[in-house]
Design brief:
Layout (H helix, E strand, L loop, with lengths): L4 H5 L1 H6 L19 H13 L11 E6 L8 E3 L7 E2 L6 E3 L1 H13 L2 E6 L5 H7 L4 E7 L2 H4 L3 E2 L4 E2 L2 E6 L17 E3 L5 H6 L7 E2 L6 H10 L4 E5 H10 L3 E4 L12 H4 E6 L4 H11 L4 H14 L6
Helix pairs in contact: 3-11, 4-11
Length: 307
C-alpha cells in the first residue's frame, strides 16, 4: 500500500513489516500464460545465461525489491495469496512485482527468491551481481539504463496527484491549479525530481525515503499534495479514505513526462542478454489488459485492503 487515525499514521510500518495481505487468493497463472513453445525457448535462454544469481544457484531467480511499496510490493508475515519468502528473513513478500517474478521464474524453470533492499540499493545490487534482477516499479530512465539493462516495460504507470478531500487543491483540474502548494514525494523518483518542479511557486519539502512515508506526510498535514503513479494512488485511497486522486488527463495541463518516465521495467546486469531476452519473451505473451488485471488483483489483496 487504517481507517482510524492510528492505523493511518502507522502505514509505513504496515507496509514495511509483516502484516498479512487480506482478500482472495491470487491465481497469477490464469493471466495470458506462455504457450509451450515460448516456455521452452525461455528455459533455453536461461540455460544459455548460466542462470546466474546472487547465491550462485542456477535453480533460483533472485529478485530485489523494497517490499514496502504497495501495490507493487510489500512485506507480510506469512505466505498467504502466494507470497514468497524474503532472503534472510522470516517474512514474505507479495504484490504486483512478486506476481511478475513468479510468472518469469515459472517460465524459466526457476524458483523465486526475494531480496529486500532499500530503494537506493537496488541498482547497486544488480551491478554487483548480488541479485539477478530488480522488479520494483522502476522507471526506465536514461540515467538508470546507463548502469543496468532493462527489459521491455512490464507496466505503464501514469502520473497522478493525491490530496485530501477537504484540501484547497481538491478541485484542481491541471498542474497550474496546484500553484503554491506545499508538496513532497518519494526520494529518487521522477515524481519528485521531474514533476514537483513543474508546479509554479511550489513549496517543495525534502523527499521522503519511502512511498508509505510520503503518504503519512500527506495524511499528517505536513504537505498539501503528493505526486505519485496511479497504482500507488489507487492503493492509497484504500488506506486513506480522506484522500482524493487528481488525474489531469495526460494533456497540456498535466505533468510533462516522457515515455521513459512512465514505462516500468525489470533491470538486470549490463550484458546479461540471455536473461533479458528470456524475460522479454515472457512479457511478450502478456497484454496491457493482463498487466492491469494483475495490478487490480494486487490492490485488492494489499495489507488492510478490506478495512
Amino acid at each position: 500500500m487504517k481507517l482510524k487515525n492510528a492505523m493511518a499514521l502507522g502505514l509505513a510500518s504496515v507496509l514495511a513489516v509483516g502484516l498479512t495481505a487480506c482478500g482472495s487468493s491470487a491465481d497469477t497463472s490464469a493471466v495470458s500464460p506462455a504457450d509451450s513453445t515460448a516456455a521452452e525457448s525461455t528455459v533455453a535462454a536461461a540455460d544459455a545465461a548460466g542462470a546466474p544469481d546472487g547465491d550462485g544457484d542456477p535453480t533460483t531467480l533472485t529478485v530485489a525489491m523494497e517490499c514496502a511499496y504497495a501495490p507493487y510490493n510489500w512485506t507480510q508475515s506469512d505466505d498467504s495469496n502466494g507470497a514468497v519468502a524474503i532472503r534472510g528473513s522470516s517474512d514474505y513478500a507479495y504484490g504486483y512485482d512478486v506476481m511478475m517474478a513468479k510468472k518469469i521464474g515459472e517460465a524459466l524453470g526457476q524458483k523465486v527468491q526475494i531480496v529486500k533492499l532499500d530503494w537506493d540499493s537496488l541498482i547497486p545490487a544488480v551491478m554487483s551481481g548480488d541479485v539477478d534482477c530488480v522488479i520494483a516499479g522502476q522507471s526506465i530512465t536514461a540515467e538508470r539504463a546507463a548502469q543496468v539493462d532493462f527489459s521491455d516495460p512490464y507496466y505503464y504507470a501514469s502520473i497522478i496527484t493525491l490530496t485530501k478531500k477537504d484540501s484547497a487543491y481538491a478541485n484542481a483540474a491541471s498542474v497550474a491549479d496546484l500553484a503554491g502548494a506545499t508538496a513532497t514525494s518519494q526520494l529518487g523518483t521522477i515524481w519528485y525530481d521531474t514533476c514537483l518542479p513543474q508546479i509554479e511557486n511550489a513549496n517543495i519539502l525534502p523527499a521522503q525515503e519511502t512511498a508509505p512515508a510520503m503518504l503519512v506526510a500527506l495524511n499528517s498535514g505536513a504537505c498539501d499534495i503528493v505526486v505519485t503513479d496511479r497504482p500507488t494512488g489507487q492503493a492509497a485511497l484504500v488506506a486513506y479514505p480522506d484522500f482524493t486522486l487528481l488525474d489531469f488527463g495526460g494533456g497540456d495541463g498535466d505533468f510533462q513526462v516522457s515515455d521513459e518516465d512512465i514505462n516500468i521495467g525489470i533491470s538486470m546486469k549490463k550484458g546479461n542478454t540471455a536473461l533479458k531476452d528470456a524475460i522479454n519473451e515472457v512479457l511478450a505473451t502478456m497484454t496491457t489488459d493482463d498487466y492491469n488485471a494483475l495490478m487490480d488483483e494486487a490492490i485488492s489483496v494489499q495489507p488492510l485492503s478490506d478495512n
